[in-house]
Amino acid sequence: MYFFRFGRVRVFGAFALVLGLSSSACVERKPSASATQTAASPQADTYATPAPDSLRAFADQQKKFIGTALATWHFGKPNYKEISAAHFNSLTAENEMKWEAVEKQQGQFSFAPGDALVAFAEQHHMRVRGHTLVWHSQLAPWVKTLSGDKLRAAMLHHVKTTAEHWKGRIAQWDVVNEAIGDDGELRKDSPFTALGKEYIAEAFRTAHAADPAAQLFYNDYEAEGLGTPKSEGQYRLIQQLKQAGVPIHGVGFQMHVEPRKWPTPEEIRKNLERFVALGLTVELTELDVPVGEVPGTLAEKLEWQKKYTHDIAAACFTLPACTGITLWGVNDAVSWLSTPEWGKLRGNGPHLPLPFDADGKKKPMFDGIAAALQGK
Ligand code: XIL
Q1: d(CA 351, CA 365)
Q2: Three-state SS at 69
């Protein structure tokens, strides 16, 4: 099998020749990998033509992305790779592209784990979301010893080197993650805050120069609703960046649902719309819906989860500029909320926050997402 690059998407074999010189934007925007299917392929390619009842088949039909976050250390676990490839047409690196993974020592870059995820995505015709270039958490400790111009230079070098490494293979980068605190101002516990707001614009400009075809996102949590200091602060920040001509193309709403205080899907839709009105793409980038603190029997919890997930997914998918939703993990066993360290954020577990159970079986939540993807 041979391939060449067409726009930013690899196009395989004879089918590419048939496509000829049709617009690269058309190929690039196509969520499905079906454009990459080839009659010349030596073996059947399951993922180029996903099973008709898979999430990715429904997403392909709507020209949307349905994603999952993958971690290489789960690769050996039952059902993990199989479900990922069978149901998702987009992949986010759960940890492998974070600063502490990529540049643990200053100037020494380690790309192998991230490369493995990108290779998995390419093999299974999945889009890649790069996560994340500048973030105060999971940061290499040496970065916190720097300040002023040294910190700025280290940040820009990290952004440039990392984005250049995966140039042309990452569809969307979360360039800056979680810069804003609960009060709507730059968060106090980030070393980058001392550089002033301009650090955000600089990170975006540097990422754009390094990988001009990538869509560049600002990504954050608990800014999904309207009217909180954080969501209003995020809106002001993004508006200013757009007005200043900074190359920002999208906003990612993490959507780590907290059932005890979460906004309504209608409020979420209205919030997404005001970012779309700024000319931006929006995505839900880290969705999970924990049910540990939801009242009722297990069956009732899972029904609530199905409906709420459906309504949030529909709030996104009915907007043309809401191009995708990524689940934060594959099944309940590997969710970050199944670890005591993170699970306690959502109160008492078990949280069971994902559409597949620990055995890889579809839960009612799966049907909620599938229905939203079909416009039902
Ligand atoms: C989480 C991962 O899922 C965990 O494995 C890791 O221990 C901590 O980070 N917001 C983000 C993600 O942007 O990167 C976080 O991922 C979850 C919260």
Answers
A1: 13
A2: strand
Q: Is 254 in the pocket of ligand 1 (CB under 6 A)?
A: yes
The pLDDT confidence band at residue 49, using thresholds 50, 70 and 90, is: confident
Q: Which value, to the nearest 10 degrees, does the dihedral of the CA atoms of residues 274, 280, 285, 291 take?
A: 10
d(CA 154, CA 225): 34
Phi and psi at 356, nearest 5°, equal -120, 140
Distance CA 322, CA 283 (A): 5
In 3D space, the residue among 181, 186, 135 whose CA is nearest the CA of residue 158 turns out to be: 135
* Band of pLDDT at residue 26, cut at 50, 70 and 90: very low
- The number of beta carbons lying within 10 Å of the beta carbon of residue 5 is 12
Is 286 in the active site? yes
User: How far, in Å, from the CA of 342 to the mean position of ligand 1?
Assistant: 9
How high is the pLDDT of residue 45? 66
- pLDDT by residue (tens digit) across 167-226? 999 999 999 999 999 999 999 999 999 999 999 999 999 999 999 999 999 999 999 999
132: cis peptide before it, omega within 30°? yes
- Which residue's entry shows tokens 């000829």? 20
**pLDDT class for 10, splitting at 50, 70, 90?**
very low
Phi, psi (degrees; rounded to nearest 5) at 287: -65, 130
Q: Which of 103, 178, 202, 283 is catalytic?
A: 178
Which residues touch 275 (CB under 8 Å, ≥6 apart)?
A: 235, 238, 251, 282
Burial class (CB in 10 A: 0-12, 13-18, 19+), 244: exposed
Is the per-residue pLDDT at 103 higher than 90? Answer: yes
Nearest ligand 1 atom to the CA of 328 is 3
Q: Which CATH superfamily is domain 23-28+46-373 in?
A: Glycosidases (3.20.20.80)
As a whole number of Å, the CA-based R_g of the chain is: 20
**Helix 55-62, helix 80-87: angle, nearest 10:** 20
Q: What is the pTM of this model?
A: 0.90
Pocket of ligand 1 contains residue 220 by CB under 6 Å: no
More confident residue, 44 or 323: 323
Alpha-carbon gap, residue 107 to 349, rounded angstroms: 41
